[in-house]
Fold these 2 entries.
Entry 1:
Amino acid sequence: MAISNTTPISIRKATLHDAKALAELGTHVWTQTFGHTVSPADLQKYLNASYSTSAMEADITNPLKELIVATSTTNDIIGFTLMTKGSTEPCLASYSNHVELQRIYVHPDYHGTGVGKLLAVELEALARKEGFEHMWLGVWEENARALGLYGKLGFKEVGKKKFLVGDQVDTDLVMVKAVQ
């Protein structure tokens, strides 16, 4: 599907009605991006825990999380982002009042159209409105597309952390930026 950079995109808070579509999109994007790095059994176990409809419902209703969606002109969910309050990493000890940008997922058909940036900007504005001073994230060190986006958005590497899916141990870069 060819998408124009002028395709109107709407941004809104996720509702429980979105859970199934978010589960499908999260499963698709995670599998496309990371699925080759883990065994099929570990992949399925991770997807069931993180991207089932019930897992997405839990994220939507969790008061410590904010889930925002991007929709196309046909109201299809084409991307989402998740902010998590109260999460931390040891390398963030010198950063006050921070919040985690836990996920930005965009359907591959919409890569390069600015959807990821729109979601990140919206989440940053929400973090600022809620009084957070810094936003942090963990990103797989081999995810060049995400690293490029986060660099353009002003995130800087401050450390590393391990990310486990079954027996597979990957390294995530921890990145942070000021939002005030």
Note: Helices lie at 19-34, 40-51, 53-61, 115-129, 144-152.
Entry 2:
Amino acid sequence: MNTIPLGQSDLRVTPICLGTMTFGEQVNEADAHAILDRALERGVNFIDTAEMYAVPARAETYGVTESIIGRWFARQPGLRQKVVLATKVAGPSRGMPWIREGKGLTAADIVASCEGSLRRLRTDVIDLYQIHWPERHVPAFGTMYYDPAKETSQTPIRVQLEALAGLVRAGKVRHVGLSNETPYGVHEFVRLAEEHGLPRVATVQNPYCLLNRTWENGLDETCHRLGVSLLAYSPLAFGLLTGKYDAGGTTGPQAPQGARIASYASVRKQRWGRPEALQAARRYNALARAHGLTPTRMALAFCYTKWQVASTIIGVTSRAQLDENLDAWGTTLAPELLQEIDAIRWELRDPAL
């Protein structure tokens, strides 16, 4: 894989990124280190994590994923310099008081979270520091509509940018990004950065897959025109697009033991647990098989080949899964197959938005 630039930054990354939210929950430390070793061996130079990981978020596992990665870096001198490291500061609490209390995301919160991530990751600098979800009230994580009556914003975007600018000036962060953002948010972060000489966001990390193509409903044009790159997460829709749930219900006996969507009640209540999402996934998975592809290969190839996507974040629980996901690189989808994919979307829209 060649490397590609992220936004208008000097970061160059592989078009596949290793996501790590399973480390410390589904994946123990030894296996996590083996997956990291294998990813590096296969040429992946981009690793994404977050202060709130592992997932599902619990007080007991807060920061564990970053610590696992930090101990991996400590194993071998020079290992840190081989990867582009991204992590995220959590937004307002969303029911996680062990991260922070209150409804806002203050400048002090941003600085304190960065310092904690640096310690856990055992590094002097974070290459890409992202705001995990907006400080504003926005539709995210399964909600559909913006409701101004629910607005609780307390920290203006400019104040957030100024806090990030301080971290950049201090040499603790190289570039900044957003996650789970809206067109308004991206425009405002870029506008204020350009107007006040603050760090310009390089990336937005949002869901993008066959079951959720809402990125193409305006954010793609926004980011294309502003020079901001998409980091696509959940390309396999939390496993729905692997085909492993096709034979039965997502919570029934047919769900593979240890599968995230079968194990985590919080996930089943969100977008990936909707019956409509499973029904749509089964349609796409059948289409893949009809064209001689595994569901996983088709779903990943869809993301890997879209002009909207800079780098696709893959989350795995084993080296075998990692190899399967990486082996899908280079797969092209025939024009008639893409037309059939679009026909299903026209009918079923985005059931996992």
Note: The chain is about 35% helix and 15% strand.
